[in-house]
Write a structure and sequence with these properties.
Helicase, Ruva Protein, domain 3, Rossmann fold, seven-stranded mixed β-sheet, two-stranded antiparallel sheet, 11 helices, 9 strands, binds S-adenosylmethionine
């Protein structure tokens, strides 16, 4: 069987699970052949080796039970970097890039020459913290934390692959509990899906992505906001992605704690991100 025929068969099978079957079939074939998608057409009349066809079938079977492509290919692009991902980490979402852009804007507007300390809480694959470390050229100390030890291991693996020269601290931790230091920037994309919303999510997400990365524990935000100010330096800033349905509530809670709060929209125009600057003298 030729590569062209293999691609046709694969595309037909994937029609049941995705609305871009040809594209995904090409990605799987390129992955198996260890070449870029663009090169697939160059020799598509060539005979497919049996071991490649077998592997392709295995991968297609995984997709047919709705395993997300990023977990099959073990990779997801975020902010121009290719992050290794597995079942322990959320697949980085494109809208989270807005959060990184907002933090970068803040970092680039600083005039203070002192190194800045940046904490990415709930780092998952490390996509936020490592993208910041990749993009920001100023002096900074980076701390990446997660309650999930296996997720933290993935983040560490990504640092070794993508930024081997950078010194980055990885710490397993529940929220901010355990830190006695303060940070100039705390950024987080925490779990923010309600149980009811979770039940309505696509099967791809429900069956494969870690629930702990999606649904917060009880009183998650109340506990986080209560301990936030003691972990931010004077004029430190907290950046967070959150549930658009609760963003006004979160903004209000932070304002009541003495933060200057700004909400930021996503690509659809919905407010989805919070920037909250800590100002100790504004304590109510
Ligand atoms: C929505 S995911 C975000 C992952 C990654 N930062 C991203 O943007 O793709 C939330 C992350 O928070 C972690 N997490 C959940 N509860 C936590 C807690 N109490 N303390 C620290 N991290 C927590 C999860 O393990 C998960 O990796």
């Amino acid at each position: 069987m030729s590569y062209r025929e293999a691609l046709r068969l694969l595309t037909a099978r994937l029609k049941k699970v995705t609305n871009q079957p040809r594209f995904e079939a090409e990605l799987l074939l390129a992955f198996v052949r260890k070449i870029s998608r663009e090169k697939l057409l160059l020799d598509d009349e060539k005979e497919i080796p049996p071991e490649e066809w077998k592997l392709l079938n295995d991968l297609c079977l995984q997709r047919e039970i709705y395993k997300p492509m990023a977990y099959i290919l073990q990779e997801k692009e975020f902010f121009g970097l290719k992050f290794f991902v597995n079942q322990h980490t959320l697949i980085p979402r494109p809208e989270t890039e807005i959060l990184v852009e907002e933090v970068l804007k803040h970092l680039q507007s600083r005039s203070n020459p002192q190194p800045i300390s940046i904490l990415d809480m709930g780092c998952g694959s490390g996509c936020i913290g490592l993208s910041l470390a990749h993009e920001y050229t100023g002096k900074a100390h980076y701390f990446l934390t997660d309650i999930s030890f296996p997720a933290l291991q993935v983040a560490k693996q990504n640092q070794k692959r993508l930024l081997p020269e950078k010194k980055i601290y990885f710490i397993a931790m529940n929220q901010l509990l355990g830190f006695s230091t303060t940070f100039d920037v705390i950024v987080s994309n925490p779990p923010y899906v309600t149980e009811q919303e979770y039940d309505r999510l696509q099967l791809e997400i429900q069956h494969f992505e870690p629930k702990q990365a999606l649904v917060p524990s009880k009183n998650f935000f109340e506990n986080l906001f209560a301990s936030l100010n003691t972990h931010l330096s004077n004029k430190g800033v907290f950046f967070m992605e959150t549930n658009p349905n609760f963003i006004e509530k979160h903004a209000k809670q932070l304002t009541e704690k003495g933060f200057f709060v700004q909400t930021i929209p996503d690509y659809t125009g919905q407010n989805h991100f919070i920037k909250a600057q800590w100002h100790p003298f504004r304590k109510l």
